[in-house]
Amino acid sequence: MRFWNETFVVWRRQMRMNLRNPAWVIIGLTQPILYLALFGPLLEPLAAQIGADNAYTFFVPGLLVQLGLFGALFAGFGLISEWRDGVIEAERVTPASRTALLLGRVLRDVVLLAVQGIVLIAIGFLFGLRGSIGGMLFGLLLVILLGAACSAGSNALALTVKSEDVMAPILNSISLPVLLLAGILLPISARSGAPDWLIIASDFIPVKYVVNAVREVFTGVFASSAVLWGSVWTVVLFAAGLYVGTRTFRKENA
Amino acid sequence: MSVITARQLARTFSTKRGRERSEVIAVAGVDLDVDEGEIVGFLGPNGAGKTTTLRMLTTLLKPTSGSAQVAGFDVATQASEVRRNIGYVSQSGSTSGDARAGEEVVDHGLLYGIPRAQAERRGRELFEQLELDGMWERAPKTLSGGQRRRLDIAMGLVHDPTLVFLDEPTTGLDPQARANLWMHISDLRQRLGSTVFLTTHYLDEADALCDRILVIDHGSIVASGTPEALKREVSGDLIELTVGSADDVAAARRVLSALGDTTIDQLVISVRTPTAGRELPGLIRALDAEGVVPEAVEVRRPTLDDVFLNLTGRSLREGA
């Protein structure tokens, strides 16, 4: 009870600050819409070749995963400026649970992501997205869990390096290969003309399975091995992210 | 009753440079006792181990060895109880620049587990006492340095701790804001009966505020006592005599030598004596008899800088 109270206090404070300065929320939302408007039309003629009936039902899930991944991965930057202002230390000197200090921040990212995801799907409909509503909600759930993992990891990394200059290159060197290899923009498969080595490399990127699962559920297919593996990987990443995050926040000298 | 007891409290940091691991001893083994209601100053130059000791006492850092009881609880095994009973005002601030001052204080109180109404009431009370009236809705980044430091103090006091730690409370403030903050710090005890433990590298601050001073250098406590007692250990007052010409230096020195060892810096001859006031008339008469007319005679009471110089062989300059 006490733990959830503390989590709520941290979460509410974070939400308040974000809503007061919503620039990042808006930027985070504008980017997928730009992709949708400026990149989507290129995919339409390719839809058949990459094995999709509807280019947007194929493309929106990728953008959703991208939103979950990158919005949350960069959330840690906010923590660095809080740390510089002494906020983190001030919170750590209270008897509040260290896990609550992390979880309140992760839940902020989860809420922002849920809102952005719903807006993205809604705008997708305007472009021609069609599919299973239940599947879209399930896909959104997977993305939110993935986002929570990224947010926890990002906050943990921020608390460890405590410098934007160190954090930015680390995140960029992770995010670009993941973006390309997970097939978020264009799928990596024999059908889309990818060479074997590229397909093998992409098999090592867990996010790829999440993207595939979200694509399947958007079309209304639930009972497939792709959905199963995507869900398993999402849960694994979620657990790993929270574990690393909690451990870092509980560390005595962080 | 003792509210802080530390025995052989030590902290070593290991740093890696390339393949080499090296150990840096930040605090070498500190013994200290602070009684209820005392205002104790922890004085030392930058890098002496002040902040590291403070972070151990406030549970932000685990000691490598040794033990400490703070507010009746062990810092290593009862961290949560220690945290509940102390207030900590760090030198790096405690509020987000973009937040609202009042909300920050209330949220901070909530993290201490006090009810919302109480946090709000106490917060507003503290704003009034710390001359922050009208700042409740303001963003901390719009406050002046002194106001923001007082806001940090309000943050540290919202849960009514009986023991307050202040880390370099006036660093970076202008003289007026410093004097104002000193007043508020001495108020803490008068109004709340709090025990105050503060670190500083300003001698005048330690002198003005503290009942007792602990001098730390290279990670160990090298002296402890009231400012007066510490100053007494430096053998007495300094008489500085300035003469008009180089010819008078030798004669003046002969006269001053009667009081003790003299030092000469061009036209200034100085000597230490326990009771300068009593010696002065005889000194002037003797100088007169020698035909020396002093340009200036100055008597300086020992300062904590002298104490520090005496203890460590180095000077602790203001702002260093």
UniProtKB/TrEMBL annotation, chain A:
Origin superkingdom: Bacteria
Residue intervals passing through the bilayer: 21-43, 55-80, 110-129, 135-158, 170-188, 226-245
A Pfam family the protein falls into: ABC2_membrane
Gene Ontology terms: cellular component: ATP-binding cassette (ABC) transporter complex
Main location group: membrane
Keyword Cell membrane among UniProt keywords: yes
Record has Transmembrane helix as a keyword: yes
Annotated ABC transmembrane type-2 domain residues: 23-252
Alphabetized GO MF terms: ABC-type transporter activity
Keywords, alphabetical: Antibiotic resistance, Cell membrane, Membrane, Transmembrane, Transmembrane helix, Transport
Cell compartments where the protein resides: Cell membrane; Membrane
Biological processes annotated in GO: response to antibiotic
Membrane topology: Multi-pass membrane protein
Family, similarity comment: Belongs to the ABC-2 integral membrane protein family.
Protein known as: Transport permease protein
Organism the protein comes from: Naasia lichenicola
Automatic annotation (TrEMBL), chain B:
Alphabetical list of Pfam families matching this protein: ABC_tran, DrrA1-3_C
UniProt GO BP: daunorubicin transport; doxorubicin transport
Residue ranges occupied by any ABC transporter domain in the UniProt entry: 4-243
UniProt cross-references to SMART domains, sorted A to Z: AAA
Cellular location(s): Cell membrane
Membrane topology, as annotated: Peripheral membrane protein
PROSITE patterns assigned to the protein according to its UniProt record, in alphabetical order: ABC_TRANSPORTER_1, ABC_TRANSPORTER_2
Gene Ontology molecular-function annotations: ATP binding; ATP hydrolysis activity
This protein's UniProt keywords: ATP-binding, Nucleotide-binding, Transport
GO cellular component, one term: plasma membrane
Family listed: Belongs to the ABC transporter superfamily. Drug exporter-1 (DrugE1) (TC 3.A.1.105) family.
NCBIfam families (UniProt xref): drrA
Protein name (database record): ATP-binding cassette domain-containing protein
Organism annotation: Naasia lichenicola
